[in-house]
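Intended use. Records such as the Radical SAM core domain-containing protein entry shown here are meant for training and evaluating sequence-to-structure methods. They are not intended to support clinical decisions.
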Amino acid sequence: MAFRSVFDAVALRNEFENAGIRSQFIPIIWKHVRQKPTSELDEIPSLPAAAYPILRSKFKVMTSSLTSAAKSKDSLTTKLLIRLQNGNLVEAVIMRYDPTLGKYDGKRRPGCQRSTLCISSQVGCKMACKFCATGTMGFKNNLSPGEIVEQLVHASRFSEIRNVVFMGMGEPLNNFTAVVEAIQIMMGSPFQLSPKRITVSTVGIIHAINKFHDTLPNVNLAVSLHAPDQDIRCQIMPSARAFPLGRLMEALHAYQEKSQRKIFIEYIMLDGINDLEQHAHQLGKLLQTLEVVVNLIPFNPIGTSSSFRTSSEHNVKVFQKVLRGTYNIRTTIRQQMGEDISGACGQLVVNLSEQRSTGSVRLLADIEDLHI
């Protein structure tokens, strides 16, 4: 029999309501599990007597287990391999940042070291982006809200998590209901994450973007754009055929008009494909009427069979200069974390036999710093 996670809030709330148990006891359960994820349900104190048989028969403290934790050479990144109840595996990545090592507007950034968790929402992904390792897995199944939240519980054993980004395995907006429920749990007791420190990334699922603000106000939206026109997008992102660039831009304008929030634009730099100066001008004209932060992402190799190459540092710098100088668009260059453990952007794919070693990586500003 498959058990539900105690973090599957709707299922747990329904069971309690049917038994006449008030839902106010649910945060008590979550607080106990967060502090003692290896404990038993009978050890949770202060619950009504009727709650224990329900928990024992239908729920588990944790439905997933931590299979391995690989740490990068510089100790800034930890990649977690998590086994789900059905035997499938997903990955989550902890990235540690020290903002005082960077500068903004010529001054040292304030604050102390903090951690961001890159979280998965699906096993595999059906978007099949050609530059992304997860796309090579195909799609296997959606994660439940509990399985998503349990990644945060596992990660909290290694570091205090301040930010969560849905940029791991899967397309979050293709698992919209579960992602929304998981985020709502993360924002409540005992996790208490600020919605402004949660970011959901999408390749551009238009119908979900249209309801994003109403459902998740103050949560950040990031869009994996990766190309300045529809032809290039379709070439490297087959799913773009279902979400034409013109309609996507209309959805983003409508979202921003309603939310009054910046949109994060992710743009992977592929040598000779989308990284030329002419592409920068196309992208600048496309985005100049939106309030955005563009994050240029160096391509990470995903195996010897990849047909893509990493853009030269010169091309990346010229691209950034055009966006900043000509179009006044805030543009950052992502310095990768966790590449030596295959934990960098685009490298998440379950492969127990492979551990790359490509040297250490440099510290970078995290998603939180892009709000300053």
